[in-house]
Design a protein that fits this description.
280 residues, single chain, seven-stranded mixed sheet, four-stranded mixed sheet, Rossmann fold, globular, 2 domains, alpha/beta
Length: 280
């Protein structure tokens, strides 16, 4: 799609300007989120209008003006073109999700990872998703594993409310249970020793929640999907550094890293990795 956008802008921008255009953008339902360098700020409305013209499903274009920040992992967005709304419906792997792109954290770039983990689940598993957001991981897992029970925790009230809506939209009210609160507190109070598997899709802070993750496992044994960020010059080194990071984070527990993979590159020489850790 980026190639298409650049081709559409060939007669509207200078070649030097095209070279500076961001290499990718996110499409979430009817909303596109694009990064535009400061040097192209005078052309950002033109770029956004062209995006809407070229991709008919897009009704709104935002420019991302900050990185992911704060406890709720939110990013600041500037409306550039189209309808003034932050709410959209996003579809993935046969599920539909109501998303608020400015008041909740959401990334379409985890689509492959959500499906991969959903295929690892066995019959009758109990899963704790420590950072459930609007419910994407939890609902996709449940749709593909109807005998499983999933507790989806998030501390952001708006994400929690949307998670409840999305559970109803996807008709999974008997399988996915949303919980509002801090994952450490909620596990300690309600979810001790019940899980066969734990999801930790919060790479910025997952290390701080490892003890709580183990507390939720039945007999302190099971699988933890541990997300982290590592610096590296390439994917091969990212895997190596991811193993080191995971081994350190789970160092006081008897564990085995079953699998580790790069999820995506999140910045120059900076990668998101996920480790499938078996606690034994």
């Amino acid at each position: 799609m980026t190639k298409m956008l650049k081709e559409a802008l060939e007669e509207k921008l200078e070649m030097t300007e095209l070279d500076k255009l961001c290499s990718s953008f996110d499409i979430i339902g009817t909303i596109a989120i694009i990064k535009i360098p400061e040097t192209l700020s005078a052309k950002k409305k033109l770029i956004a209008d062209t995006l809407i013209e070229e991709i008919k499903s897009i009704k709104t274009v935002f420019c991302q003006v900050s990185g992911v920040e704060g406890d709720y992992r939110l990013r600041k967005l500037e409306l550039l073109s189209g309808e003034n709304t932050t709410i959209t419906v996003y579809k993935e792997h046969g599920c539909a999700f109501k998303v608020d792109v400015i008041n909740t954290y959401f990334s379409p770039r985890l689509s492959t990872e959500r499906l991969r983990i959903s295929k690892l689940i066995g019959p009758n598993e109990v899963i704790v998703n420590m950072f459930g957001g609007v419910g994407t991981f939890s609902i996709i897992i449940s749709r593909n594993n109807k005998s499983s029970i999933i507790y989806s925790i998030d501390s952001n009230p708006k994400a929690h409310d949307l998670c409840k809506e999305n559970i109803e939209i996807n008709k999974l009210t008997s399988n996915v249970f949303p919980i509002l609160g801090d994952a450490k507190v909620e596990i300690s109070n309600k979810l001790r020793g019940i899980a066969t598997r734990v999801l930790m899709p919060l790479p910025e802070k997952a290390r701080d929640f490892v003890d709580a993750a183990i507390t939720s496992l039945a007999d302190n044994k099971g699988i933890v999907h541990y997300f982290s960020h590592v610096g590296a010059d390439n994917k091969k080194i990212a895997i190596r550094n991811g193993i080191k990071d995971t081994s350190k984070s789970f160092g006081k527990f008897n564990h085995k890293i079953r699998n580790i993979r790069v999820v995506r590159e999140v910045g120059p020489r900076f990668y998101q990795v996920v480790s499938d850790v078996e606690i034994i």
